[in-house]
């Protein structure tokens, strides 16, 4: 995710607690969705769709933080 911001992501994960929480939640959702889609965990399509929407919202928030931090640098 966002390879052009790889170094900035690494820095923000250690320096910005809010960014770190968003990033961790995004990764948690990614794993949950993967497990549901592959049948490791049972879930209906509504639950999966809801988690995907939350994940996309987090991705948008992460991108906004990255852009602001990148412009400030």
Provide tags for this entry.
73 residues, mainly alpha, 3 helices, elongated
**Structural class based on helices, strands and sheet pairing:** mainly alpha
Query: Roughly how much helix do the residues carry, as a percent range?
Result: over 70%
Largest sheet: none
Gyration radius, in Å:
14 Å
The number of distinct helices, counting runs of at least 4 residues, comes to: 3
Mean pLDDT: 96
Number of domains in the coordinates? 1
Termini separation: 20 Å
What string gives the helices and strands in order? HHH
In the predicted model, the low-confidence regions spanning at least 5 consecutive residues are none
Strand content: under 5%
* Strand segment tally: 0
General shape: elongated
Organism: Caballeronia calidae
Protein name: DUF465 domain-containing protein
InterPro entries: DUF465 (IPR007420), DUF465_sf (IPR038444)
Structural summary, described in words:
It is a single chain. This protein is mostly helical. It has one domain (3-38, 49-72). Helix content is 81%, strand content 0%. The longest helix has 28 residues, at 45-72. The protein is elongated. The two termini are 20 Å apart. The model has no long low-confidence stretch (mean pLDDT 96).
